[in-house]
Amino acid sequence: MDWLLNLPVPWMALVILGFVYLGTAVIYQVVNRLAVGERAKAFKAISPGMLPPLAVVFGLLVGFLAAQIWSDADRAATAVTHEASDLRASVLLSEQFPGPTEARFRDLIRDHIQTAVTQEWPAMAQHNVTLAIVPTALADALRLALSLDPRTPGQAIAQRELVGALQNALDARRQRIVLSGSQVNGTKWCTLLVTAGLMLVAIAMVHSDNPLANRIILTIFATGVAVAFLLIAAHSRPFTGDISVRPTVLLHVMPETQRVTR
Hints:
Blueprint: H1 2-5, H2 9-34, H3 37-45, H4 51-94, H5 100-125, H6 136-146, H7 153-180, H8 186-206, H9 211-235, H10 248-252
């Protein structure tokens, strides 16, 4: 489904509406052709009371999936915000070590952000990033922080806080990479599709004796199904698609190149 999830939302909506309407039209035609003779009487004998329970089951499935994807998106956005905050804190703390050391810290953090934006984000969108990939620039910054030789009490405190901020940034990066792998799996999609299909078949059978009313009700319900599918598809992966977590916050904290002063 990568091609669908990477479409802009308007195009995604058109594709999903097209598929749902096409499937609904097929169901309507099949039921209409079968609704003759004894089968027509059998279809008419189906109680309309079965429709509300099916609609409730479909609504519950949509609600559960929506809660999952929105929770994943919120956690992904929080992880990116925490990473940006910790990187900014690292830049500020590095000012306690002026000169080449501060400039080196700024370069490493800038390199890390550039790598995250240009390499990791596209890879996360395709589920191609794993925790085995070491963020070289951030790891070098942490090693540099551990190797510092503080000469004043203020520098000692700054070194301790700097190490903590870099460790927190690494942890936030790990969280966003883990969350980049979250998605609505095939079993959940199939369950949702089958439930929607059963609902459409039941509607077509119950109203098979009134073609106009049948088409109107099927169109209304099919539109609701398509909207639900669009909602889930557009948010199904935190870092994929038109509605996804962007690296904007990281770019906002990217340090500028600093001239080294001695």
